Every structure is written in structure tokens, then in C-alpha cells.
Amino acid sequence: MATIASTPVPAHQLVAESGQLPKLRTNQGAYVDPQSIGWMKPTPRDAPLEEMRRRYDEDGYVWVKELIPREDVLDMRQHYFEHMSPTGILQADTSPRDGIFNKELDPLSHNGVGPEDLPPEQQQVDLLIAAHVTPAYQKFVEHPDLRQFIRTFMNWQKEVMVLRTLLRHNVPYGVPAGVHYDRLFLRGGEAEFLTGWIPIGDCSAEGGGLMYLENSTELGKKMEADFMKRAESFTPEQRISAFNANMMSSGQLTQDGEHFGRVVAEGKLRWLAADFEAGDVVFHNPYMIHAALQNEDPKGRIRLSTDLRFYEEGAPLDKRWMRVWTPNDGL
User: What pLDDT was estimated at residue 312?
Assistant: First the structure.
């Protein structure tokens, strides 16, 4: 089970070491200016609880290292790619545990879960749907180390995970998710929620993981307040939709992370990235602005991850999300 220490962790263990900055870009637009890039702060899983909560409150996220046993995560990775192997997504003579993309294929024909740009073949779509309900995946999202940490961190007696999880792969040079904050998609419940993003396998900063806009919680709240004000004349159903007249067709803020950071955020906030390892989990608040990166992994690895949302039991949650993901479900 995950443990949280009551004794302080040495300060040098709570600070990310500087290194060569990665090259970052989203689905559209230019690479982010290196001067606008930084590294996320890793937090040991046995760091003091007060330090973890402070980081979450101040930074909008907490990246917990080695929360889930590495082999449990890699087992899930292997299971997923064995499940998807009939699509030909894997390079011949490679292990499903490695998840190496078949370089003979068109990346745009092998997109994963998303609001648009689904793969073209029905077999592919059927396998994406089925992947969300396999016993192995259900066991993984109920991992006791993950669930116990959430209860302790959030000071909840019991947590409720919405059934609409997003188990998605991001092949090299495919179509990653755009810039957004999660509240855009979960406006139907009054309670705040906790997002847990789990990379299912090692994922370098240039390998299609997430990047976070530094200290962007207040910007996300300001943007959401503006969206809600401009939606006052909408019907209740329209008002809570991420696809209403105020939004992009995909529900995102933009597909161009470089432009968003430079123009919308006025160049005042850096994009933060990380080299994630199997076992890590990133928790972030509903207004923290983030985006998936273009996967340019030099080894051809497919980024696999899952997005999980949690509420405290009994809190008014977004009931629309209490069903398993399917294409065109309106969310």
C-alpha cells in the first residue's frame, strides 16, 4: 500500500534537477520557445502530506513518483497492446510491453480515444471501447495504492471514480489532445473533483506526455467565469456543454500550445514538462491548464495513459460521466 511519511524529506529531494530542456509542441503550431519551458517538480511518494498538499494548492498539481508498483503498470501496458494487437499497431517482432509503433503505418489512422479523429476502421473503434471494460483495466484503476493515497491526500472517507475514464494511446506523430482544463468537460456537477493522470509506461517529455502551464489555475478560473457569463442565455444543457457556441468544436481551448502560452497567457507563464516513469501519477485541479504533447519519441514508443476523475462520496458530481466512454457520447 502507498505510504505517506510523517517525517520531513530532505529539501534536495523535493526539487527537480535542471537538465537540457526538451523540444515541445502540440498538435498544431510551432515548437515552444525554450525560454518558455521548464521542468515539473517531482514529489516522492513518502514526502510529508503537508508538503504534497501545499504543492497541489500552490502549483495546481502534484507529480507523485513511484506511487504504483512499476511492474503493475507495465503489466497493464502489456495487456492493452495485446488487446489492440489485431489492428497491427505494433512493430513486428517487438514486445507488447514495449509498445513500439509500427512505422509502416499512417499515424493518423491509429489515433486513440478523443472527441474527434477516431481511427477509421470499426474494428479499431470496437477495441478502444472494449479496452475500457476489461477485467485487467478495471483492476488497475482500482489499485489499492492509488485509492488509498487519494483518500489520505484529499482527507476523504471514501472516493467515487466517475465511470467515464479515458484510456488512450498517442502514437508517434498522431493527434494529441489540445490545450484545456478539465472543468470544461465536467461542468455538470457542483463539487470540485481531482484528476489523476497515469502514464502507463515510461514517457519522456518528447514522447507525447502532458505539459502544464505553470501557475495557470487562476487563468483557468478566469476563463471559465467568462465562458459562464457569456453562456447565461443558454439552456442549462447548453451551458454545461464543452461543445457549446463559445467553444471550439473539440471542446479544447486551442490546438496550438505555443500560441496559447505566448498570446493568451501573454508569455508570462512557462510550459512545464517531465520525463515520466511507469508508476508515477500526476494529480491536478479542475482549472489547471495543460495539453498533450506531440509524440516524437526517438524509440517509436506509443504513449499510453489513463485519465481518472474522483469526487468525494456523496458530493454532487457530474452524472453525465457515470457511464463508460463511447464515441460520440456528447462529452
Answer: 97
